[in-house]
Amino acid sequence: MLRDHGRFKYSAIVDRPDYTWPQGKKLAFYVALNMEHFSYGEGLGISMSPGIPHPNTYNWAWREYGNRVGVWRLLDLFTDLELPISVLLNSELYGHSPEVVAAFRARGDEIVGHGRTNSEHQNDFDEAGEAALIREATETIARHEGRPPAGWLSPGVNPSDVTPDLLQEAGYTYILDWPMDDQPVWIKTRRGRLLSLPYPHEVNDIPMIMLHHGDAGAFADMIIDNFDEMLEQSQKQPLVYCVSLHAFIVGQPYRLRHLRRAL
User: To which CATH superfamily is domain 29-262 assigned?
Assistant: First the structure.
């Protein structure tokens, strides 16, 4: 037998009970904006200039563009469209660029836990270290927002074997680390359960633009085509469609123009 995660069993989407979202809707849509902060001269992250030794100023500054410029252009776009979003937040941003988080707070956007920084991955820690990471990020968000986040995406989408257990024990109700379905799925934890919400590997600017080298126009077409197809599919069963964005990528002016067309 192959090794199994033990979190959930196989379930064909065509064989599940039918239901609807609030107000009788069939397709739930959300935009997930990843807001991240990286350590200078060390740590992890998508590289614009791989192979350059630390301090890789060029790469760090490229990612910092998202916090200084890109996010503000995106905020204007979301506000113009009256579009609420989910902010997947590194807690280090409260100290680095508090104005950014305050702008989302003023809009009433949901803050989702996304670790302390994307310069570190939870899978690199032992269980005690990971629990401390989750606790610190959660307490920082709760202190500034007045309540802890309900959801979590692991930095680099790189959870450990015990991440769902630690999150459920820390009070979280949903996780975005498992892109295996177009519907929410309950996953088992050692002391209960956690809801896995759909989060895309495909309609996501990191893999589509940075890894597969797709252009901004193709990414916008992908957003539209995925919506149109899922809207038809959702007439048979309720679905969740998420678009995942990063401010240092789609916040670039030429990409923002195409994103505006898609949304």
Answer: Glycoside hydrolase/deacetylase (3.20.20.370)
**Which residues, listed in sequence order, are joined to residue 204 by a DSSP beta bridge?**
244
Q: What is the tens place of the pLDDT at every residue in 225-236?
A: 999 999 999 999
Reported as a single tens digit per residue, the pLDDT across 81-108 is 999 999 999 999 999 999 999 999 999 9
Six-digit token pair at 79? Answer: 């506000």
**DSSP state letters, 151-179:** EE--GGG---TTHHHHHHHTT--EE----
List of residues 6+ apart from 235 with CB closer than 8 A: 26
pTM above 0.90, yes or no: yes
Using alpha carbons only, what angle is made at residue 137 by residues 132 and 141, rounded to the nearest 5 degrees?
145
* Helical spans, DSSP H, in 91-233: 93-96, 98-107, 127-145, 163-169, 205, 216-233
Q: Is the sign of the CA dihedral 162, 147, 155, 194 positive or negative?
A: positive
Domain boundaries, the chain: 29-262
- Residue 124 is classified by DSSP as G
